[in-house]
Amino acid sequence: MNSKIKLCLVALLALVGIGTTAQAKSSIQLRVNGMRDSSVVLGYYYGEGRYALDTAQMDARGKVTFHNDSTYRPGMYIAIVPSAGILEFMLGEGPQNVEISFDKDNFVASQKAKGSPVLEDFVAFQQFMLSMQKKSDELRGLDSIARVKNPKKPQETEEFKQLERLNTQYNQEVEDYKERLVQKHKDDILGKFTMAVKPVTVPEYTVPEGVKNKDSAQWRYGYDYIKAHYLDNIDLGYDGILNLPTVVDKVETYLDKKMLQLPDTLARYCDTILERSSKSQSNFSFWASRLLNKYQMSEIVGMDAVFVHLAERYFLKGRTPWLSDSIIKKIQERVTALKPNLIGKVASNFRVQQIDGKDYELLKDTKPKATLIIFWEPTCSHCRVAIPRLDSICKPLEKQGLRVVAFMTQGDGPKWQEYVLDHKLTRWTNVWDPYRTSKFDKTYDIYSTPVIYILDKDHKIVVKRIGVESVDPVVRELLNLPQAEAKGKKGTSKAQKNGEKNRKKGKKK
Q1: Is residue 463 in a domain?
Q2: Cis (ω within 30 of 0) for the bond into 208?
Q3: Is residue 371 included in any domain, yes or no?
Q4: Last residue of one domain, picked from the residues 340, 359, 390
Q5: Which of 237, 101, 128, 125 is nearest to 190 (CA)?
Q6: Residue ranges of the alpha helices (H) in 17-112?
Q7: Picking from 64-73, 342-351, 386-395, which range would have the lowest pLDDT averaged per residue?
Q8: CA distances (Å), origin 78, targets 28, 50, 65, 186, 191
Q9: What is the pLDDT, as a whole number, of residue 1?
């Protein structure tokens, strides 16, 4: 049975809500030129999803109005017009009685808006970017001419140089426009959006004299800078920031692709995300739940340490009052199950019975240079596939100092003994604990089989819950053995040798 917890973010949406001021009434009037008598769906962004909020019917002139007894939360909204497309528009704080009109065949270019500075300036920004895109597209003509004039070195033509000048000019115009937008809207949702989509640029760096590996030093500088500044442009504590597209994706990219996948590093920067979002209770709730789920469900080895860190620092310290006592209890149970067997810790000791009736105690077995523990059952179909494969992988490594401890978790003793004898596994340390007095299922978090743990000579957990195919390289590294040559490479090498022999024979003939 899988005892992992999935915190419900749908409930969180209800907690966050869309309306924020019960006294103020709002309205959104849309007019779609060229359409009539059609339904329109009003929706909004939240997190990484889009959600429907309301539906209304157009009149004979293509006009539709949405009414709200409170103000809409600042953020990006959408109007889904069937058979025509989706219009994105932005609402800020304050009075929200807005009007938007647009042609059914050309949403952005024809769009007109009034009633909100944020909305009006967002429309103007969209139309500006559309005009700049057209200018950029025109540069392709210069590129084509340059390649025709000088196919080998188009960069030496006047057309290419003109292209570069115009491209630089256009990029600067865009940056200047965005900067003016940020200055005008620095405290509202449009300014937050403009900053959030702004990429972080690593400053130029000169590697100091005397550094031998300059490429490595350059990479390290860039990595450290991105690690420290990638999220600087996202105001995670601003109410409404989660009602913008791209924000969640950018944070996920930061954690998954910009950071080394090391538990301590990720835990530290999860703290940064939560600290920055804590100015808004709803934002903090979203990120706390999301990050806990993310690292509990992660398939990357060792990420359960991040889960334990987040659970102990936030969920078990009373900082998540929106969760019920029953959910907190389940989180505590998972922490209790995971904490004893985190990577880097000394494995929990067990004293159990071997297949010949003798006792075996893990931490007193100091002879092996590395220990592989596999928890399995003779009747488990996955185990029946894994055990023979593991046997063939481990056999040559056992001679180099690997100990295999095959722990039968449950089943019939005679059938277990029969399986071990039939498959010639008597050289392994075969153990069981039929009454579970060692509590191995708790200390090793065994809720399914097979499960593999690999320990170093000091019985520290190096890796766990890996597939059989990953065993060989891990154990070889622990035993300081050369890595096995890949089958494809080995086969190619042999073929090359045979080919060389045949070639020489042909010469002799």
Answers
A1: yes
A2: no
A3: yes
A4: 340
A5: 125
A6: none
A7: 64-73
A8: 11, 9, 14, 23, 19
A9: 38
Looking at the predicted structure, is the pLDDT value of residue 270 above 70?
yes
SS3 86: strand
358 and 322, same domain (yes or no): no
Domain match, 462 and 375 both: yes
Range of the domain at 222: 215-340
pLDDT band, very low/low/confident/very high, at 96 (cuts 50, 70, 90) = confident
Report yes or no: 24 and 71 within 8 Å, Cβ to Cβ. Answer: yes
Q: How confident is the model at residue 95 (pLDDT cuts 50, 70, 90)?
A: confident
Same-domain check for residues 313 and 417: no
Number of domains within the chain: 4
Q: Would you say residue 6 lies in a domain?
A: no
Whether residue 81 is found in the same domain as residue 192: no
Going by pLDDT thresholds of 50, 70 and 90, the confidence category of residue 84 is confident
Q: Give CA–CA dist 120/112, Å, rounded.
A: 8
**What is the pLDDT at residue 14?**
35
Q: Which two tokens stand for residue 51?
A: 């959600």
Same domain, 282 and 333: yes
- For residue 388, the tally of other CB atoms under 10 A from its CB is 13
Closest among 381, 385, 403, 406 to 394, alpha carbons compared: 403
Q: What is the mean pLDDT of the chain?
A: 90
Alpha-carbon distance of 300 to 79, in angstroms, equals: 39
CATH code of the domain in which 366 resides: 3.40.30.10
User: What would the mean pLDDT of 374-387 be, rounded to a whole number?
Assistant: 95
At CA 44, angle to CA 43 and CA 46, rounded to 5? Answer: 140
The residue that leads in pLDDT, 96 or 63, is 63
pLDDT the model gives residue 336: 94
Q: Check whether residue 220 and residue 335 sit in a common domain.
A: yes
Q: What is the pLDDT of residues 417-452, one digit of tens each?
A: 999 999 999 999 999 999 999 999 999 999 999 999
The residues facing 42 across adjacent strands are 54, 79
- pTM of structure: 0.83
Tokens of 359: 């006792």
Instruction: Based on the fold, state whether residues 332 and 365 are members of the same structural domain.
Output: no
- 386 falls within a domain: yes
Q: Which amino acid is at 82?
A: P
Q: Quick one: pLDDT at residue 83?
A: 83
CATH code, domain with 86: 2.60.40.1120
DSSP assignment of 179-216 equals HHHHHHTTTSHHHHHHHHTSPP-PPP-PPPTT-S-HHH
Average pLDDT on 173-187 reads 96
SS3 480: coil
Q: What is the pLDDT of residues 473-498, one digit of tens each?
A: 999 999 999 988 765 544 444 444 44
Quick check: 356 and 461 in contact, CB under 8 A?
no
Of the three residues 70, 91, 116, the one that is the final residue of a domain is: 116
Coil, helix or strand for 242?
Answer: helix
> Quick one: 25 and 129 in the same domain?
no
